[in-house]
Design a protein that fits this description.
mainly alpha, single chain, 0% strand
């Protein structure tokens, strides 16, 4: 995927071919230092990461976990809210204890709570995603404000 086809990366998730895993990990680890060599904005580190995270949302393989954990720490430093929202979405797609602990640790131990933009991104990632019951306590605790889970439900429901 060196010729500008990074935007096709999420299609790889449909096939789940283990030969594609290095491509996805490489995109998750993309560095802005490499951006001087690209021919298309879709090949920038920013877009590579977004497309790779979208791929992980559809293909939750444990092999991506160490890279996602490293990415968390790097992106907290960069404060890029779009990448953080996509990271939250990718992690929540795992819908397991690791994913819950990943987000809890991010806010509780790594200082994301003080960076108010990440609270909004957590809520948006949840709301735009699968909305697993598992993550509701995190949304209430770290989202912009406690969410009324009954909002919008009619009294006839």
């Amino acid at each position: 995927m060196d010729g500008g086809e990074t935007y096709l990366m999420p299609i790889l998730a449909e096939f789940k071919d283990s030969a594609d895993i290095p491509l996805i990990i490489e995109a998750l680890q993309a560095s802005q230092m490499d951006d001087v060599k690209v021919d298309s904005y879709l090949q920038t580190a920013y877009y590579k990461k977004i497309f790779a995270l979208n791929t992980v949302m559809e293909w939750q393989d444990e092999i991506f976990i160490p890279t996602l954990e490293k990415m968390r720490d790097e992106e907290l430093e960069r404060k890029n809210s779009v990448i953080i929202r996509n990271l939250f979405s990718a992690v929540m797609s795992y819908d397991n204890d690791w994913a819950y602990e990943f987000i809890f640790d991010m806010f509780h131990n790594r200082g994301a709570k003080e960076k108010e933009v990440f609270s909004e991104e957590l809520f948006r990632a949840f709301y735009e995603g699968k909305q697993s019951e598992r993550f509701k306590p995190l949304i209430d605790e770290y989202g912009e404000e406690p969410f009324d889970w009954n909002w919008g439900k009619s009294e006839l429901d």
